[in-house]
Design a protein that fits this description.
Layout (H helix, E strand, L loop, with lengths): L1 H9 L8 H12 L8 E5 L6 H10 L3 E5 L6 H5 L4 E4 L17 E4 L12 H5 L4 E2 L6 H20 L4
Parallel strand pairs: 1-2, 1-3, 3-4, 4-5
Helix pairs in contact: 2-3, 2-6
Amino acid sequence: MTMHSFAGMAFGEHGFHACTPGGILRLLDFYDVPLAGRRAVVIGRSPILGKPVGMLLLARDATVTYCHSRTTDLGDIVGEADVVVAAVGRPELVRGEWIKPGAVVLDAGYNPGNVGDVEYDAARERASLITPVPGGVGPMTIAVLLAQTIQAAEARQPIR
């Protein structure tokens, strides 16, 4: 079933988003972060987070670059991004000094010791918006899961 949802999302069909990517989009919408024409870097390539969030950003007319833990010159690529989504599962892989001043940083990583994929303190000095770990993207994942559960239940059996 996951494969069908992923394909539907890739083709822009109506349906449910993967919860964490959907939560990331809701955060971007809430804070009125413009995406059209902006450079977005997604660090991570998982089929439930990295790949779907990149597709959703692309559907919003962002120019998306996918990277991962083995990307050569990762710091240079991140340094050109207006939006950075870190979802690689490596504690503080993304250095604060890599962040372009004014960039929006969404840290979807969670590692032992409540540490994200972004070097938070240093990155927050440069970013215009940044999500903390814990307390940023994680609660949005749960919110989207609950909202989509309700939507699915209502679609199956309308509330009278």
